[in-house]
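Researcher: Here's the sequence for the chain we discussed earlier.
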Amino acid sequence: MKILITGGTGRVGANLARRLLAAGHDVRAFVYPGDAGRAGKLAGFERVETIEGDLRSFADCQQAVDGMDAVYHLAAAFGGPFDNRDYLAINGGGTLNLLEAVRDQCPNLHRFVYACTEAIYWQLTDRSPHLEGRESRYFANAIRETDVSPYLQMPYFLTKRIGEQLAMSYHHQYGVPSVSFRFTTIIEPSEFLNADGLPPLFLLSTAHQAWSGQHSPDPAEQAMLDHIRSLWTGEEKLLLSLNPNGVPFRQHYADVRDIALGLALALDAEAAVGQEMNLGGAAILDWADLVPWLAERHGMEYVTAEIPSPNYFELDLGKTRSILGYEPQHDFHSILATAEAMARGEQTDVIPTGVRWQARSEA
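Model: Thanks. This is the structure I predict for it:
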């Protein structure tokens, strides 16, 4: 098949392209001009065409889908030089442009696969009213596809949900064979460790940087912030992060290779059409287990602190397993081993993310 991947040189797109090429497909990678620093990432592979374009341009989207048998729509405004209007225009309007282009030019399209996000589950109305942007991510039970929050935080969360609804509406209204995956937080192993070989997820400096400038009129929240600040002496330590109720952090992650696996499986699974599914990995990280293990491994001290923003969740993958036969392969130790191999300069089965938002020089 000839397959379009929007965001084809991103961290998910490039690793998906590699898997699709290995399966014998041809790939067209659609690249945003402002992401020119990664435009040549797939240059060493055969059967890859890279084109530049902007999702906000219907003409660019028409060119992108021309002659394609399947579309993976991974590209989105995330970080980078965008405001709320840009997010809606790219993530919402850009998805609409692609779907309209498909409807006009690809009547026999085999699959339209949309990349959504776990963030559509976060409880905006339960977040702290005092701490900017700190939504609640505490779920006692595994999150199922029916647990979408009624209100979503702008700009990324809401606009990605809009894109998903467009993809599924075009399936039901116009017969576009759409599938939507709600990704859990993705780890690309080359980004997992800092220059000292330590994972920032578990470092005191990371929490100190995130929270040192925050203030809250709520005495309980302010006490947490003050405690985090008091722990920082300039010497790096590991941090066993606790939720405000004292329960250690626990979060579901996915290695980029597992995300690529799930996406690829959707190409051949007819039962996936018309479905919204969670896509997570084998890396369910529990701070209570991993921080003491890392402390012993690295001969470091660790401290404990309650964090004002709750973080305790796992995605239910039952639907994805049932429909796709999906089984993720990469747990924490697999990710860590790959990250350390990449840091040593060894060849692995991961295409590194590379520099983001490096606009082309006009010189």
